[in-house]
Amino acid sequence: MTSTETEAATEAAVMSETPAAPKPSRAAGGTAQTVGRRKEAVVRVRLVPGSGQFKLNGKPLEDYFPNKVHQQLIREPLVTVEKPESFDISANLRGGGPSGQAGALRLAIARALAEIDADDRPALKKAGFLTRDARATERKKYGLKKARKAPQYSKR
């Protein structure tokens, strides 16, 4: 057997193999549980196929986040994948303030959507919803009033 015959035989063997089946999603039955974090906030989310209901610490979305900007921020991943009313979302929110909790909730929802349907992952990634915002509060340093604010300076 010459090298070209060997190459041809190898190529034929490779071509005859069946392509790998798509990896099944880890989410059983279309449900997913994920965690999102931002600043000091930690959010645990459970996505279940449903009618678009939100339960955040037992309250509806409008009661927990009265600010429309936060509500829009939270719904963005669902709108991006064109499934705004396909899932019921229940979440346990702890720590931080409203803005941090809203950001953490958005990350958790995006992660759950990517886990349920792998085809949605590129759109969510392109929109930046799967990226953890690593910014955190800078620590206070001794000799300063705050993290960077120095006491008033007097020349004399």
From TrEMBL:
Give a yes or no for keyword Ribonucleoprotein in this entry: yes
Supply one GO BP term.
translation
Q: Which Pfam families did the record assign? A: Ribosomal_S9 (PF00380)
Q: Mention any one GO cellular component term assigned to this protein in its UniProt record.
A: cytoplasm
Composition bias (Low complexity) maps to: 1-18
HAMAP family (alphabetical): Ribosomal_uS9_B (MF_00532_B)
- Please give the family membership noted in the entry: Belongs to the universal ribosomal protein uS9 family.
What's the protein called, per UniProt? Small ribosomal subunit protein uS9
The species is Prauserella isguenensis
